[in-house]
Amino acid sequence: MDTNRVTVRYAKALVELSIEQNIDKQVYADMMLIVKAMTDYPAFAEYISNPAIASVKKSEKVVLTFKNQLQKLTLDFIILVFNKKREFYLNDICRNALDLLRQHNNTIVARLEMSIEPEKAMVERIKEKFEHKLKQTVELSTETNPELIGGFVFTIDGLQYDASIATRLKKISKELQQNT
Fold first, then answer.
1. Which terminus of the chain faces fewer neighbouring Cβ atoms within 10 Å, N or C?
2. Cα gap 2→126, rounded to integer Å
3. What would the CATH number be for the domain defined by 5-103?
4. What pLDDT score does 2 carry?
């Protein structure tokens, strides 16, 4: 979680309201959507943080863009952020809100990276096994990385298990260089 006091305070306020109104799961989805939009569309993130554009104008555009996808609470919150001229922090506020909502819902984030697209059934089995073992909900994302050659890299709660062929080959290469 980002420790910037502004971003944490705003995130806490949103999370507390969403829990109070029993819409925390919907607000979580809203925060994911905003973060994804800012990550996948750099021009959108640049627009939001552009100081040459009036905050009110940016707020109107963002609300118009997302009004059919977001909860009223989320829209009102975004308007507040822009009215207070804190839009530069929006991405960090959303990320902090996601972290706080994960804590509230006892959820942990994991990522499975493979050289090929994994089968959905296998991903679901991995998710279920970790949920059973950790007694937490696991939010598992997958990523395809052909550079791994084979095997996988699994990251959960900041810990990484690398069982990729690429890493094994690098280790063998390093050992051979040391022995010559």
1. C
2. 29
3. 1.10.520.20
4. 54
